Amino acid sequence: MNDATLIRKNLFRKRLRAILLVVSILIAFLIYGVLAAMQNAFSMGTVGAAQERLVTVNRINFTVALPYAYWDRVRQVDGVDIVAPASWFGGYFQEPQNFVQSFAVDPESYIAAYPELVFEADERANFLEGRTCAAVGRALANQYEWTVGERIPLMSNIWQRQDGTQAWELDICAIFDDADGTYPTNYLMLHYEYFNEGLSFGRDSFHWMTVVTEDASRNDQVSQAIDALFANSPAETSTTTEAAFNEAFMEQFGNIGLILTWVIGAAFATILMIVGTTMVMAVNERTREIAVLKTLGFTAPRIFRMVLGEALLLSFIGGLIGLGLAAGAATLASGAMAGVLPPFGLSLTNTLTAVAFMLALGLLTGVLPAWKAMQVRIADALGKI
Amino acid sequence: MTATSPLYTLKSLSKRYTRGKETVTIFDALDMTIPAGDFIAIMGPSGSGKTTLLNLLGGIDRPSSGEVHFEGARIDTLSQGRLARWRAAHAGFIFQFYNLMPTLTAAQNVELPLLLTRLSGSARKQRVKTALEIVGMGDRARHRPGQLSGGQQQRVAIARAIVADPKVLLADEPTGDLDRTTADEILQTLQLLNAEMGKTIIMVTHDPAAASFAERELHLNKGRFEERGKA
């Protein structure tokens, strides 16, 4: 037996109370872990954004199309290196709930604009050449177990073909990876030409252009020049950096960072009060036992450490279980949302932050009862020895 | 130190409490010597200061004035930390209501004072085993206090008091919660510890039958001691 045995036995002397406290802490860390993992997913686009890439969309918003002619005009702007137009396709595979994030792109300019996408040489060539070809990101291909050479019908709720159907037959010609793990591979690209020619409405337009500048230092100048080019036209543009565009896009789902802060703040404030109050009560119940320990010769600092140790043990048990469950939940959610969000999970930073929270929670909830325990006067607590 | 050399020397010891605007004197200018190896029963009416005196001897309270010497060294001026260490090394405490830790087994309760020593785990286990056997509780080592009778719990408490081999045992109404037969068994155990192991025992009791087990009886009344012959 040692002090750790005493700490453990004291913590679990009232098992139900200890379990309820562990569960309440567990829930707080579960919420933290899941939200933090989701925030990671939402910030992946920002992390993977290249400095010299700009995105031009309709000034109203990116769902309103831009005329096809803009592509060529933007290419003429001084400082522009590559312009890659793209249209949102959306789409689903077999069932509407099997959402597939997909874009109609000009393959050559798009691949040039995104050098971080890694292709097998022959697959890349096939994709560029085949009109009905699609290039599928590794994560998406894994989700639906697609392989190169397969023909898939991609359904669209938005885009109708000229023959009245909504099924777009695509040949999977390439599966691409991400060079450094920062760019999502949970989407599909099809040829803009195939898409545009097949449309029954809304032809000769696209939703955004990725503009690669010759140098990131010219971003401001280029974006101003592009927007000035279409000022006072029926389709004015708004050009921002790719990072800003991605961030704005994700904010459609809500400010995850703010939600995270508020939810975690509320959860931890509540836990702090619940655990803190319970710890004080638990120590008050044990005043006599603490006095006995002091009588036996346990010093006040040692008593302080033991009570603080209980609060820390409680915090770490609940916190680590909660974090473990959050990691599992994030893995499951990541799989279920693979078509919408890039693969996500808890990062090392999230884990270290959670450990810091556990430490803080343990210290904050333990200091007051530990101090009270340290101050117990033997003669008062025992009445008589 | 011989059997008759003083273990405790109290010099002009006073204890006063303040209750509101009133100051209550428990005892005043008390002088007393307790030789090593003694077995004293301190008796007296309620409020006479028996327990307060025991608290002062055990270093868990401080006098208002005067001095408490143990083996020639003054203990009433020690810091809280030093007093705690002094208690761990020199004094064993036996309570009326046993005060065992309900979550620990008998053996773990007895081991508590040894956590304050540098003994190895195996040495601690051996000492615990011996202490429990001395009080006749060797076969109850794994029982929790809730599984033991009052008399058995007090035996475990005595084992806890002697396990670190202190020089003095301070007992406050050790049989106050027990029936006569069990109380006599406990008092015989204390007699044995005094006679065979040389422990100095200072016992507060209001029970003349319990006091009769001691070598001498001191009656505390109105702040003064009066030694009486054994009944």
SS-derived structural category of chain B: alpha/beta
Mean of pLDDT of chain B: 88
State the shape of chain B: globular
- Cα-to-Cα separation, first versus last residue of chain B: 30 Å
Q: CATH superfamily name of chain B?
A: P-loop containing nucleotide triphosphate hydrolases
Written account of the structure:
The complex is a heterodimer of chains A (385) and B (231). Helix content of chain A is 55%, strand content 17%. By secondary structure, chain A is α+β, with helices and mostly antiparallel strands. Chain A folds into 2 domains: 3-45 and 254-382, no CATH class; 60-235, no CATH class. Chain B has one domain (6-228): P-loop containing nucleotide triphosphate hydrolases (Rossmann fold), CATH 3.40.50. Chain B contains 7 helices and 10 strands. Chain B has helices at residues 50-57, 80-90, 106-111, 121-134, 150-162, 180-197, 208-211; strands spanning 6-19, 22-35, 39-43, 65-70, 73-74, 91-94, 168-172, 200-204, 216-221, 224-228. In chain B, the strands form 2 sheets. Chain B has a 6-stranded mixed β-sheet, sandwiched between helices. A 4-stranded antiparallel β-sheet of chain B has the order 2-1-4-5, covered by helices on one side. The radius of gyration of chain B is 18 Å and the shape is globular. The model of chain B has no long low-confidence stretch (mean pLDDT 88). The interface between A and B is medium-sized, with 25 and 33 residues.
